[in-house]
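Re: beginner question about structure tokens

> Can someone show what the tokenized structure looks like for a real chain? I only ever see the sequence side.

Sure, here's an example I had lying around. Input first:
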Amino acid sequence: MNRIEATPEQKIEELGLLLPAPRQAAGNYVGCVRTGNLIFTAGQGTNEYRGKLGEDVTVEVGYQAARQCMLNLLAVIKQEIGELSKVRRVVKVLGFVNSAPGFTDQPKVLNGSSDLLVQVFGEKGKHARSAVGMAELPLNNAVEVEMIVEIDPS
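And the corresponding structure tokens:
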């Protein structure tokens, strides 16, 4: 008996999460650019999570911030392509962590984004990744994430 695979949107719902409305760009840029079969997103922070990791934000809260950043990114991609099942592969994730001096757990924070991608897309959600500590982020965001995805050509 063939089991119908849940769509990425259904998997997000099963996790008890919601895709937010895509956020408006805060300047003279767009939320994503599609070239050929690739989509490059602009960075996404969150309105909910502010502050420095290792100072006033814990790794666990940073993990949730990275997860919310990814939901924001998925909302942008869905707006661009209509349905997330058109994502063929997550190629690259780049995460910026607002880090206090001496904080070195940026990879643990970015697991919030990476874990969500694998939960939603399975094997095609596995990706290359960089997790970078920053002295400051815009609006004192705790985390900002951007990504590159390959989509079906149709």
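Each token stands for a local structural state, so reading them left to right follows the chain. Residues 44 and 67 are 11 Å apart (CA to CA).
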